[in-house]
Input
Amino acid sequence: MSEEGNDFSENAKKAANDFQEEVKQTFDPNNPDNGKIVAIIAHITVIGWIVALIMNSQNRTEFGSFYIRQTLGIWLLTIVLGIIPIVGCFAAIIGLVLIIMSLINAASNNMNPTVLVGEYFQDWFKSL
Output
């Protein structure tokens, strides 16, 4: 019975150590998959953007920060364009197209800025 207790204890320690290593790999800031997850979540509505911002603040990655800034810029651009008469009719379509293009880039691990305005988004929102 004492031997069974020791075996159980050793197995539990080994499982705990394995789990700890997996957690370190999963949430490693240098792990590109961590930034990719944040980048993809940022594209899913404003609530997704807030969740991505919180996730990225705990474990900041360059890739995640890049797409948080891009997505914020696209959302704000869509709102501003929506206010302008005539252009406002197409604002939702423009915003949707930009979000889809950005999402495709994020999913394929490319840090391509949004057409025409992406560099401005990176500059304006560099604190995120």
In short: The chain has two domains: 1-30, 32-124. The chain has a mean pLDDT of 81. Residues 32-124 form one domain. The two ends are 57 Å apart (CA to CA).
